[in-house]
């Protein structure tokens, strides 16, 4: 029998992990999100102002708006419009970024 050391198969060292923000930076997601939020807020603010301030004149027909009144309900709808538009624009810009990166590879 020999006294040679056997190589260790299991190591206690934790391997280094690559940075996780590389893909986010490569796809320029923060810029896309900022553009998406700006587009969503602009669209929602415009729709809210046209409806609540009646910039095109009064709308035909009257409705009852319980609890919050028309301004409150249209404010909620404006929030939904802003967030959905922001998500849509962000997604579309990120898909364009993915396409451009894939074309370069």
Please provide a written account of the structure:
The chain starts with 21 loop residues before the first helix and ends with a helix. The chain is built from 3 helices and no strands. The protein has helices at 22-26, 29-52, 69-104. By secondary structure, the protein is mostly helical. α2 (29-52) packs antiparallel against α3.
Discrete helix count = 3
N- to C-terminal separation? 56 Å
Helix-strand pattern, N to C? HHH
Q: How many DSSP E strands?
A: 0
How much strand content do the residues show? under 5%
Runs in which pLDDT lies below 50 for 5 or more consecutive residues are none
State the oligomer: single chain
Helix content: 55-70%
How is the biggest beta sheet arranged? none
Task: Describe how the helices and strands are arranged.
Layout: H1 22-26, H2 29-52, H3 69-104
Q: What tags apply to this protein structure?
A:
elongated, mainly alpha, 62% helix, 105 residues
Condensed summary:
The chain has 105 residues and is mainly α.
């Amino acid at each position: 029998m020999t006294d040679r050391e056997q190589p260790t198969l299991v190591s206690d060292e934790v391997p280094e992990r690559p940075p996780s923000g590389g893909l986010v930076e490569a796809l320029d997601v923060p810029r896309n999100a900022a553009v998406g939020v700006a587009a969503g807020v602009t669209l929602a603010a415009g729709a809210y102002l046209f409806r609540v301030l009646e910039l095109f004149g009064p709308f035909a027909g009257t409705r009852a708006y319980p609890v919050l009144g028309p301004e409150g309900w249209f404010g909620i709808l404006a929030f939904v419009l802003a967030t959905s538009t922001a998500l849509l624009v962000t997604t579309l810009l990120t898909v364009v970024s993915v396409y451009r990166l894939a074309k370069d590879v």
